[in-house]
Amino acid sequence: MSRERVYLFDTTLRDGAQTNGVDFSLDDKAAVAAMLDRLGIDYIEGGYPGANPQDTKFFAEKKDLAATFTAFGMTKRGGRSASNDPGLNALLDAEADAICFVAKSWDYHVDVALGISREENLDCIRESVAAARGRGREAIVDCEHFFDGFKANPAYALACVKTAYESGARWVVLCDTNGGTLPEEVSRIVAEVVRVVPGDHLGIHTHDDCGCAVANALAAVAAGVRQVQGTLNGLGERCGNANLTTIIPALKLKPEFAQRFDVGVSDEALASLTHVSRVFDEMINRAPNRYAPFVGESAFATKTGIHASAIAKNPATYEHVEPERIGNRRKVLVSDQAGKSNVLAELERLGLSANRDDPRISHLLDRIKEREAEGYAYEGADASFFLLAKDVLGEVPEFFKVERFSVNVERRWNAVGKLVTVAEAIVKVRIGSEIFISAAEGNGPVNALDVALRKDLGKYQSLICGLELIDYRVRIFQGGSDAVTRVLITSRAADGETWTTVGVSPNIIDASFQALMDSVVYQLVRVGATA
Ligand SMILES: CC(=O)SCCNC(=O)CCNC(=O)[C@H](O)C(C)(C)COP(=O)(O)OP(=O)(O)OC[C@H]1O[C@@H](n2cnc3c(N)ncnc32)[C@H](O)[C@@H]1OP(=O)(O)O
Ligand SMILES: CC(=O)C(=O)O
C-alpha cells in the first residue's frame, strides 16, 4: 500500500488564544511559532490580523519558518465587494503564506448570524478564496459548524464545501465548532464528503465538548481527510481543541495510522514532544496535566505491584508504546499498592543496588506500607523515599541531632503602629559533641523554622548554602481516629536540582519540620557529606 501524507495544522496561536485565561504576548507568539516549526508542524496559524493590534503586528513582517505561516479571518461580509471589505483587506495585507477563512456552512447560521441569503454566503466564500489566490496566498476554508450543518441540511453544507474547493481552496476544513459530534457521526459524514471533494483537500477541526476531539480527528483521518487541525496541550475555545500532543504520537506510533501515513514530525522531533508540551505549559503559566496521554507525568507511571513485576520482566506487558519515543519516561511508584518489584525498580533508578532476596527489601516494603498507613505518601516525595530506603539499607549517617525546637507566633503592633504577625523559631542542634543554637524570624512559623534550622549547621553549613524552599503543600485528612497533616516540601539546591520531602503528624509544625529535616539530610547525602 502506498503511503500518504497527513498534514498537521496548528491553531494554538489562534483558537488556543480563545482559551479562557490564556493571553499570548508578541514574544510568546514568536517563541511558540518557533517551537512548532522545530517540531515539524506543516501549518502554523498565527492569529487574526486586523482583529487586534497585536495580531496585526505579528503579521507585519514575513516569518522565517519552514511551516506555512497562516493568517485567520472571516470571509468577506455580505452586501459589499471583497475589495471594499476592510476585514478581508487586513488579511490580504498580512505577511502570511496562507489565509484560512472561517465560512458559514450551516444554513441556520447563515439565516440567523449573518442574515444574508444562502446564495450570497456561497458568493462570500467564492470571492474571498479568489481574493486570497489573487494575492498569491494559499487559501484554506474552515467550514464552521460543518457537522451540525450537514445534519440539518446536507445539500447546503456540501454546497459550501464544494464552492470553496472549486474556487481554488487548497484545503476545505470540516469543523465541529460546537464540539457536539461523536466519532461514529464523523466517520459517516466524512465518508459522504470525500465523494464530493478529494480527501487530500479536506481537513478536520474538532472541539472537545464531548471529550471526543482527538477521537473525532482520528476518525476523520481514517475516513479520508488529510489535514488535521489541533493545538498544543489541547488549548482552545471552551473545552479546547483536539490535542496535537495526543494526535501526533497516535499518527506516528499506532500501527493503523503509522503503516499508512507520513507526517512532517520526525522520530527525533517526536522524542522532544514531552519537553515541548511542558515548556508550553510553563510559558502560559499552567500546571502540566500529569494525566495527559503520551506526555503526562503519569502516562507511563505504574503504582501496583502486579504491574511493576511484569514491567520488570518486559515493559511491553503494561505499556501501549515505549515512553522514550515521545521523550517521556517510565515511572514505577512506591506506595501501599507496591510490591518488591516496585521497590527494586525505584532503588535502581535512584542508584541504590539491592538484591530481590535481600531481607532488607521486604523490611523496606513493610516500612513503606506502615508509614503510608500513617499518612506518608512517597509517590511524590522522592527524596524522603530515598532516605527511608538508605536508612533501611543502613547507609544514612547521623549528621546531626535536633535536641529541641520551638516556634512562637505573635500578633502585635509594631513601632509605626501597624498590626503585624511575626514568627520566631529557635532550633538546638547537636553535631558530635558540639551544640548549636540558632534563632530566626520568618514570615510564618515554617519559614522561621526553616531559616533557624539552616542558620548554623557547623561543619555542614557550607554544604547547605543556597538550599531554598520553593514549594510547600499541606493536606489534612483523617488517619485512624485523628486528623493528620501531611506536608510536602520541594527544595532547590544551588546547582538547580530539586527534590520533594514529606512529613506527617497531627501537628502541622511537626509535619513541616520533618519534611525540612529530610530536605537538609538529603542535601548532605547527595553531596557526599560524612558524619
Ligand atoms: C469558530 C471560531 O472560533 S471563529 C473565530 C472567532 N474568533 C474571533 O472572533 C476573534 C477575533 N474577532 C474579533 O476581534 C472581532 O469579532 C472582529 C474584529 C473580527 C469583528 O468585530 P466586529 O466588526 O465588531 O463584529 P462582531 O465581532 O460584533 O460580530 C461579527 C460580525 O461578523 C459577521 N460574521 C461572522 N462570521 C462571518 C463569516 N464567516 N463571514 C462573514 N461575516 C461573518 C457576523 O455576522 C457579525 O456581523 P454583524 O456585525 O453584521 O452582526
Ligand atoms: C474555525 C473554528 O475555530 C471552528 O469552527 O471551531
From TrEMBL:
* Catalytic reaction list: pyruvate + acetyl-CoA + H2O = (3R)-citramalate + CoA + H(+)
Question: Quick one: which pathway?
Answer: Amino-acid biosynthesis; L-isoleucine biosynthesis; 2-oxobutanoate from pyruvate: step 1/3
Q: Which segments constitute the Pyruvate carboxyltransferase domain?
A: 6-271
Record-linked PROSITE patterns:
AIPM_HOMOCIT_SYNTH_1, AIPM_HOMOCIT_SYNTH_2, PYR_CT
Look at the named UniProt entry and state the broad enzyme category this protein falls under: transferase
CDD domains membership: DRE_TIM_LeuA3
Could you tell me the EC number(s) of this protein? 2.3.3.21
Family assignment? Answer: Belongs to the alpha-IPM synthase/homocitrate synthase family.
Query: What is the official name of this protein in its record?
Result: Citramalate synthase
Origin species, per record, is Blastochloris viridis
| Gene name of this polypeptide | leuA_1
